[in-house]
Design brief:
The complex is a heterodimer of chains A (528) and B (407). Chain A is built from 26 helices and 6 strands. With 528 residues, chain A is mostly helical. In chain A, helix 4 packs antiparallel against helix 6, helix 14 crosses helix 15 (348-360) and helix 23 packs across helix 24 (492-502). The two termini of chain A are 24 Å apart. With 407 residues, chain B is an alpha/beta fold. In chain B, helix 10 packs parallel to helix 11. Chain B starts with 6 loop residues before the first helix and ends in a 13-residue tail after the last helix. Classes of the chains: A mainly alpha (528), B alpha/beta (407). At the A-B interface, helix 11, helix 20, helix 21, helix 24 and helix 25 of A face helix 6, helix 8 and helix 9 of B.
């Protein structure tokens, strides 16, 4: 199985995955059903003809390219993203575009600020969702898109909380996307320092307890004057929220072997990791800042490691390194990734492969993905998972050559299906477990989405179903739909239901619409 | 796997599988409404601060440790509503005070889990499976429903996704019942529904996630719910439901229409008040309490004589720290409070042994200690409200002596 050569220390990030793990021959060759499975899991589903093409050109090559360095976006993608480009703006530029230049020069009070950006916030959030959705539907870098979405749930933030309102797009584009396939530690540090996370899990407000060792006054820098920086003097004390989720969700895992004392020491180490609220000359508003005065510089101990007094911000980086390279983290992430890509209950053999790849590559995400794609359990799992609502929507659009039409309408469809972007309030993020999405209302909503898409009633989409499903007689439609939309996976009862349902429908256009609705809403299309 | 995907047995028992497309178009009304028993669970997600909901205003430590977020004693501005000389309701829970006075509302304080976890997810899972310290996939209510009477529509979760407590049970899961229908013109809808029903029925034998059963049930339920007067104008029992509690209005309609079900589940979000928790009027807690108190009162008023059927249990995964944190909020704690409301509830009092809040009385020196295991409350309700015959094996760990919440 995907056996990694023993290496001492992590390989460089640019190392081609082939040199890290598995012999290439493990991916099946020339089998469209196998390539459909690969595209269902490592991409957001196949576009018409894509599985067949991949079976010819080779899955091994596709995966290598996907895990390799990024290429510039195609002109088609760039054009499709341009209506939503504002979603990726720097937060300060975004606020300036709403409230005018200099809006951030004044001290911002929470409720006041929230009121002033209220007219823009909902629309902005929808635009962020559409930027993501457009990439997921259209980008050739599908594995990266799948992983951005995975990390967005792993490192969940909740947009309606405070200033996260203006930070979500930036978080996705600047903290998650650059590291989505790279080294886990880089990703961990990027999320730990991002203002969206610092606000969402309250670390921006976590300060040393009164009476604990104070950061050295001599080192006070301009960005460091805590008392004057919109932080009322009475607010003193740590907030454990981020520390706990950092250990439980982001790194070690619930069974990762940490104690309550570790949680508290972690919070103390990260006191002072905050954001600039009122910028001084040379500072960016809403940027990360380390406030030495708020940092608890006493001795700490986490997971048996000593963090001696007085190392300031470096303590946090050392802690994140400790966590990113901890054996429990490797196990936790390997399990979570196998559950995501293979089966809800992660197959132990896959976890072993993924964990080994994580450790031997120094936490390279691309190496772990390579190992999972080459594990035997992966190839035994077609159809084992229910698509999440987002995966359903994106795969449906891809299947009918649809795409967002430049408006923000599609964000509402995601909301109706229960998975609006950046709106899961709990730190665990949206689940990718089949049972979490298996409900009567969820199934009905998918049938509704499929019907609206097929009948041209779904707002916000341009789709050309005629190009995928030509008009024709009943048997011909059923055959074409099965081939183009389900890759030939339709069960006899599904085909019989469609065949029977189309009998007596005289209008050819209606026949095609009904067939498309049934194929996209079919049980087979909900699985991956 | 059989428990995870265990809906088939129920469907077969209810005759739905064989019935195929000739399903009845309406729910059979409750045969004997007077004898119906329903348990309605409201889960406050995120760990609600029991010390703010039912305030131990006689404790000096409470005011000492919460300089900016304590609720004042009764009689003071923004003060609590006195219940019994020891505890007071948060002022925004005022709508519930008459229900307490008339003996329909009982409170259980210092209730919670014996497990030390302060993880939301772990604690919620343990509470929903009533299997403390064990990773289990079967909800406690699902287990109860397996062993009690044969209602057709066993459980309703007015949530986006099925709660773990009902996992493994035949449950209708829908955040809003009123909108539960395919939208298309009548003729197209009929045809679409028939086609979908047939293909989902054909998928029931496929292993893995139980898509087939779920799809068939979805279409069946949609047709039956459409026959009920679920529109906003139907909630005319005099109640005004805030937006957060809109699901309670639909639930009241089902009960008034004698739709048979045993368990309903609602989630209430937003209780993880790490910052700006506030006190009587300001902060994040006050508006939440205001909405849910008004919603519960409206629900109660709408139920009328069917109050005898119903017990509403309000729970949360754990409480919050006694000491306020550096950001005007509280962190994850231990013991909290439960509410039980119903016609047969022996209300008007605060149940449970009060452990005190002085340092040596606290759990781990920081939190309200747990003196009543939540499973003791669950077991009593399972036995008396859901007629579960053998609660001790079903909910291990429950104390032998029940609180006596129900007559």
């Amino acid at each position: 199985m995907a056996c990694a050569p023993a290496t001492s220390g992590p390989p460089p990030a640019t190392l081609a995955p082939t040199t890290v793990v598995a012999p290439a021959s493990l991916l099946p060759v020339g089998d469209a059903r196998a390539s459909r499975h690969l595209l269902n899991r490592f991409a957001f589903g196949p576009r018409p003809g894509e599985a067949e093409k991949l079976a010819d050109t080779g899955m091994e090559r596709w995966l290598s390219e996907q895990l390799g360095p990024a290429q510039p976006a195609s002109p088609e993608l760039a054009a499709a993203l341009s209506p939503y480009a504002a979603a990726a703006q720097e937060p300060s530029a975004l606020i300036a575009s709403w409230l005018g230049e200099g809006a951030l020069d004044e001290p911002m009070r929470g409720p006041e600020f929230n009121r002033s950006i209220k007219p823009y916030f909902r629309e902005h959030l929808a635009r962020v969702a559409l930027l993501q959705l457009s990439r997921q539907v259209l980008s050739e870098r599908q594995v990266e898109e799948v992983m951005v979405q995975f990390w967005l749930n792993h490192f969940n933030v909740f947009a309606p909380k405070g200033l996260v309102r203006v930070l979500g797009g930036d978080y996705i584009e600047r903290a998650l996307r650059p590291h989505a396939l790279g080294r886990f530690e880089d990703l961990l540090v990027a999320t730990a320092r991002h203002p969206a996370m610092l606000i969402y899990l309250d670390n921006a407000q976590s300060v040393r307890e009164q009476g604990s060792a104070e950061g050295g006054m001599a080192d006070m820098s301009a960005s460091d004057s805590a008392a004057s920086d919109n932080t009322p003097a009475r607010r003193r004390g740590i907030n454990e929220n981020y520390a706990r989720e950092l250990l439980e969700l982001h790194t070690l895992g619930r069974a990762g072997g940490y104690s309550e004392d570790d949680v508290i020491a972690t919070a103390r180490i990260l006191t002072g990791w905050s954001i600039v609220r009122r910028p001084k000359p040379g500072e960016l508003p809403l940027a990360f800042v380390f406030r030495k005065k708020q940092h608890d510089s006493g001795d700490k101990r986490v997971l048996g490691e000593s963090f001696p007094a007085g190392h300031g911000e470096d303590e946090g980086l050392r802690l994140l390194h400790l966590l990113a390279t901890h054996a429990s983290t490797a196990r936790h992430l390997a399990t979570k990734l196998c559950a995501h890509f293979v089966a809800d209950e992660a197959p132990p053999a896959c976890v072993v492969d993924a964990e080994r790849a994580f450790v031997s590559s120094g936490g390279e995400v691309r190496s772990v993905l390579w190992a999972i794609a080459h594990s035997a359990s992966f190839w035994a799992a077609p159809g084992a998972k229910l698509k999440t609502p987002l995966e359903f929507v994106v795969s449906a659009l891809r299947a009918v050559r649809g795409k967002p039409d430049g408006t923000l309408e599609l964000a509402r469809a995601l909301r109706r299906l229960g998975e609006p972007l950046l709106e899961e309030s709990v730190p665990v993020g949206y689940s990718d477990h089949s049972l979490m999405w298996l409900s009567e209302s969820g199934m009905l909503a998918r049938m509704q989405f499929a019907s609206a898409l097929a009948f041209g009633k779904l707002g916000g989409v341009s789709a050309d179903i005629a190009a995928v499903l030509p008009e024709g007689e009943v048997a011909e439609l059923a055959r074409a739909g099965n081939r183009e939309l389900l890759g030939g996976a339709a069960s006899p009862s599904t085909l019989a239901a469609i065949d029977e349902g189309l009998q007596g429908v005289d209008a050819a256009a209606t026949r095609r619409q009904l067939a498309a609705a049934w194929f996209v809403g079919s049980p087979e299309f909900q699985r991956q | 796997m059989s428990t995870l995907y265990g809906r088939r047995s129920f469907l077969r028992a209810a005759g739905l599988l064989s019935a195929g497309l000739t399903l009845p178009s309406a729910f059979a009304a409750e045969a004997e409404p007077a004898r119906a028993r329903r348990l309605i669970c409201i889960f406050l997600r995120g760990a609600a601060d029991g010390l703010s909901l039912v305030v131990p205003y006689a404790e000096a430590a409470y005011y000492r440790e919460r300089p900016s977020i304590a609720i004042a004693p009764p009689g003071k501005a923004g003060g609590v509503i006195d219940l019994d000389g020891r505890f007071g309701l948060h002022p925004r829970l005022a709508p519930l005070k008459p229900l307490f006075d008339q003996g329909s509302l009982a409170l259980v304080h210092a209730v919670g889990s014996p497990h030390p976890t302060r993880s939301h997810f772990e604690a919620q899972d343990y509470m929903e499976t009533a299997d403390v310290g064990v990773r289990s996939n079967q909800g406690w209510l699902a287990r109860c429903l397996e062993r009690s009477g044969p209602h057709e529509l066993r459980a309703i979760a007015l949530t986006d996704t099925p709660p773990l407590a009902l996992r493994g049970a035949p449950a209708l899961v829908a955040p809003r019942l009123e909108k539960f229908r395919l939208k298309a013109n009548e003729r197209v809808r009929e045809r679409l529904e028939r086609g979908f029903a047939r293909m989902y029925a054909g998928a029931r034998a496929v292993p893995g996630p139980a898509l087939g059963d779920t799809g068939v049930r979805a279409l069946d339920m949609a047709r039956r719910l459409a026959a009920l007067p679920l529109g906003a104008e139907a909630g005319d029992g005099g109640g005004q439901y805030p937006k957060q509690a809109a699901a309670l209005r639909e639930l009241a309609v089902l009960i008034r229409e004698n739709v048979p079900f045993d368990v309903a589940w609602l989630d209430a979000q937003g209780w993880d008040t790490h910052q700006n928790q506030g006190n009587a009027d300001k902060g994040r807690l006050a508006p939440l309490l205001d909405a849910w108190a008004r919603g519960l009162l409206a629900f109660w008023n709408d139920l009328g004589e069917r109050r005898e059927q119903v017990v509403v249990l309000v729970m949360t995964e754990f409480g919050r720290t006694l000491k306020e944190n550096g950001t005007g909020g509280t962190d994850h704690g231990h013991g909290s409070v439960m509410f039980a409301l119903g016609g047969r509830v022996r209300g008007g009092r605060v149940y449970g042994r009060w452990p005190g809040l002085e340092l040596e009385q606290r759990w781990e020196g920081r939190d309200l200690a747990v003196t009543t295991d939540f499973r003791t409350v669950f077991a009593e309700l399972a036995k008396k409200q859901l007629a579960v015959p053998d609660v001790t094996t079903l909910i291990p760990g429950a104390a032998a002596e029940e609180l006596g919440l129900l007559a």
